[in-house]
Amino acid sequence: VRFLYSKVALLIALQFAYSQAYSQDDDLDEFDWDDVRIEVESGTTQSPNNDSWDFTFNIRSNYDYGDRDANNINSQLQGDIANEDEHEADVDIAASLHWSQRFGNKFQARFGFEFDHEISSEELTSDTIGESIRLDQAFIQYQPVNQLALRAGNLVLPFGTADAFRILDRFNPQDDRNWSLEDTNTRRVPVPALHLNFDNTKFRAQLGVGIGFRSNRLPEPGDEYDQFLVDRESALLHEQNDVNQYRPEWVLSGQYFGKGFDISLVLGDTFSRAPVLRGIGVEDAQVALETYFPRSLFGGVSGSFSKNSWLLRSDVVWLKNKSIFLNNYFENVFANPALAESNFSTQTVEATTGVEFTGISNTLIFGEVHHAYLADHEDSARQDRNTTGLAIGFTTTAMSEKLSLTARVIELANLTGHISQISAHYRLSDRSLVRFKWLEFNASDDSSFFYDYRNNDKALLEYEFIL
Amino acid sequence: MKISIFCVTALALLNPAFAADIDTIMNEVEQREEGVTSKLNMTMILEDKRGNVKKRLLRSYTKNQADAESMSMYFLSPGNVKGSAFLSVNYADETKSDDKWLYLPALNRTRRVSQSNESDSFMGSDFSYSDITGVDINDWDYEIVKETDEVDGHDCWVIDSTPKAENRKRLLAETGYEKRRIWVRKDNYYVVRGQYFLAKGKKMKLMQARDLHQIDGIWTAKSISMVTVKKKNILHKSLIEFSDVIYNSEVPDTLFSTSALTAEPSL
């Protein structure tokens, strides 16, 4: 908590210094109006078309400087991890192409593709290009009347109001390959789905049906963000995910809009997007981790309320069953395989409450608290019965939206681990910008699940060009 | 009652050039005809003191109803904001908070946003939110400082306004202005020029509305500019050009819903 206070003080100091850069005393004076006329070239004002393309190109350089401790990792992974140890830089290239088109007043189509590739890891060949291309959001929309729309395609369907702890947003998988390096909001992966939407401005109803299960995008085994990092300290190598689950998933929501507030009810039945450890097995004559994706019914309430410069938002979700990992599974499994349990299921209630304040010049200050409660609990569970998390920060933007600065601290696991994040982007022109991000990981308690990720500190420099 | 420099319209009057008292003038300014609905395209040009220029293309829809004024705005270019949309519903009942929603296409997410500080920059421009949404004329004291002054060949009143003493602290916080000087055309009560004195930083903002013409009998500016200066040095310039303006056409209520933000309609 003392550390948290110091972080808050740092954020306030940063904001104060930033504001001071914009205030100086000066004298008022008359002005020649002819000097301040803005002349516009002929043809500047355009009438937009109904179809459009856009292309974005990014080149990113990551610099990792945390000292990773690979001594406890099993021998076959040690080589890879040792290479990532201490100081390492790599370069990624990414591009996206999007197209949208209207067909009369009732039909609309949008297609998008994404490409990303880490240059330093392997040569760019036709095979790796194929592996690096993914379908982004892509859909056809039919809108027979103003109030009703049906979309089919590769969709992102967000639910809930939270930003940092999105407990109700359970329809889409996350891209966890660079967990915490990307903004929380941008880590959703589109899935094949149908979406029916009714909206008469006061009431909105949505039904989303997912067709074909997709899990979170996970880091490579042994990677710094590997969620089974602690389990790989044993002599286990491969991961075997059971993904052959095609039972349709669904989410239904109803939302009411009042003056200055809204409230929604959400009900759904979806798979867990994160793999849950079920046990160990043998694959290709090697011992392997066996995982699965449990399914859970959930229900929740979500709402937001604004008053002047303040915004209050909150989500609550109840999960019928959530799988919780157990500690020391591998010690037990070798001692007595018949008794070793990897996880247990329990009802869970989670809640988030967020506050935003925009009363300071061109600045947004935000905070979000998350709490999870497990109805059943075992001493050997990796998660406490009650878990609290916290995210605070601010974003400030200068004239022309040229420079934007964001600072954020996320506290996890009952404040035993945290991530500090400072990011800034400077817009060189309408078509290009430079982005910088710095991340610091920390864990104050070696019993925290976050302890194994404490040295994932890194800096990122990115250039983006938009055609 | 609110007046906004952002309104692109003004009421055409048959014989307005009479010697009027200040209250009459300001009431006429406030009661400018804006149309029940409007559809228009906007090109916003931002220029910093080094001459770097940014350009944005937007499409806007408005609807004025008895209990609320609604506006939706779709960002058409450049690529980094393309597909984003903003919805604002301002209620006549001032005890109710206004609704503001922002849609981000990459996330396919529409989220409520809090009411920004009224003196904050609107989309990175020299216009503030209070310039866009307008100020309540009853909150300010007015004085005619010059009975006649010519702007682009048209006779104008020059009027100073300062916050009423009981509102001063609140208005300074909301608008950032400690004094405003406006030029009101006598033939149509259109505010064609403004000089706004900022309380902080001793900066000044200069507004000019250009090329007034009538569309369906409603006075409309072709462009409005705002320039921020300090010691005669230009810090930043913004210009908004309006095109394809259509008044009083059919605009369905459903266009002002959170769902409508996800798919930009055709004009």
Structure, briefly:
The complex is a heterodimer of chains A (467) and B (267). Chain A has 467 residues and is mainly beta.
Keywords:
heterodimer; A: 467 residues; mainly beta; 3-stranded mixed β-sheet; 4 helices; 49% strand; disordered N terminus; B: 267 residues; 13-stranded antiparallel β-sheet; 3-stranded antiparallel β-sheet; 3 helices; 18 strands; 8% helix
Could you characterize what this model shows?
The complex is a heterodimer of chains A (467) and B (267). Chain A has 467 residues and is mainly β. Helix content of chain A is 9%, strand content 49%. In chain A, the strands form two sheets. Chain A has an 18-stranded antiparallel β-barrel. In chain A, β7 (191-199) and β8 (203-210) form a beta hairpin. Chain A starts with a helix and ends with a strand. The model of chain A is unreliable at 1-29 and 70-84 (pLDDT under 50). Chain B has 267 residues and is mainly β. The interface between A and B is large, with 81 and 85 residues.
Average pLDDT level of chain B = 84
Q: What's the helix-strand series of chain B?
A: EEHEEEEEEHEEEHEEEEEEE
**Secondary-structure element pattern of chain A, one letter each:** HEHEEHEEEEEEEEEEEEHEEEEEEE
Radius of gyration of chain B, in angstroms, nearest whole number: 18 Å
- What is the number of beta strands of chain B? 18
User: What general outline of chain B do the C-alpha atoms trace?
Assistant: globular
Q: How many H/I helical runs of chain B?
A: 3
The whole-angstrom Rg of chain A is 25 Å
Distance between the termini of chain B: 30 Å
Fraction in helix of chain B: under 10%
Q: What oligomerization state is this entry in?
A: heterodimer
Structural class of chain B comes to mainly beta
Number of helices of chain A: 4
